[in-house]
């Protein structure tokens, strides 16, 4: 397996365990029996985990972990520097080793997204747990269902998008709903707006989500400045109220929440190798990598860290499927909203001109390698877990 770079045959005796490192790792134990499924696990100490699995004299480690003494043929493993790296590696291995039931084994919770189906004539914002190739605008991932619902309410109210679940058949005689009476809905059910007018409001909402509010806030700020410059203070106060509503809607969007088109970032994690950082690229919600930045080797290399980062991050994003996007968003959300969260996250849009913030990335790497950096598994799992 290309993800696992260390391999060894299982041997009886203490010498076999003494050769194993006491470091975090993801491992696969191959069994002797023909057709037997391998054992996939993760641990904060490879030697301890394999001793519990393979040493017949070791005390039992719990009902959830089998005893494989005398049954194992070989072990493949990869040392890891963070729980984020372990999550991604276990996911990739489980999909390959257990194609029929890997989801059940991983117990991977689907991400919480908001979906704006642009192909429908009168779309609304609704909760989605899966990405599809349907041209819709997806916004997320959110930490909780309540957070997603609050954001949907704020955004729908700002653009007066419908919140009902009914099939829209415009009819002036239709009684409507409370949101239409409160002027918080464009009331397409009552034919108060045309389909083109409703589509324009939906397009403005999609652009608002793409820019996290900048598409609406920037022109309003210009209008406020113009009104103040002409001493039209009543108009300036009215524009300020609209700006306050925009700010309130943006506050409902947690900092990591983006549309999938704009969900481009780098995740920096400690490495199992000294003086190195693992770089993961997030492209449209899909995780690629890791690529290793070995600062020890760069000290004598003709290329700089920024040059290597440019090669990795400016390359075309690898192809992906909606199913992979969904899974990677779930893994990303697990890490994004963990408390405490290890590593560093930097979005592409944070740099001038829309490029990657290379200097900030290098400074973040220095923080991870500094003497005050948090240990990779200080707050992570401390025992092996089978997939």
Strand content: 15-25%
Order of strands, widest sheet: 1-4-2-3-13
- How many domain units? 3
Strand count, sense and barrel status of the largest sheet are:
5 strands, antiparallel
Task: Please mark out the parts with pLDDT under 50 across 5 or more consecutive residues, or reply none.
Answer: 372-376, 378-385
Portion in helices? 25-40%
Shape: elongated
Structural class of the secondary elements?
alpha+beta
Write the topology of this structure:
Elements: E1 6-9, H1 14-18, E2 25-31, E3 39-43, H2 46-54, E4 72-79, H3 83-97, H4 102-106, E5 112-116, E6 125-128, E7 137-142, H5 145-159, H6 178-181, H7 195-211, H8 214-229, H9 233-251, E8 258-259, E9 265-270, E10 276-283, E11 286-294, H10 295-298, H11 305-313, H12 322-336, E12 344-347, H13 358-369, E13 385-386
Antiparallel strand pairs: 1-4, 2-3, 2-4, 3-13, 5-6, 5-7, 7-8, 9-10, 9-12, 10-11
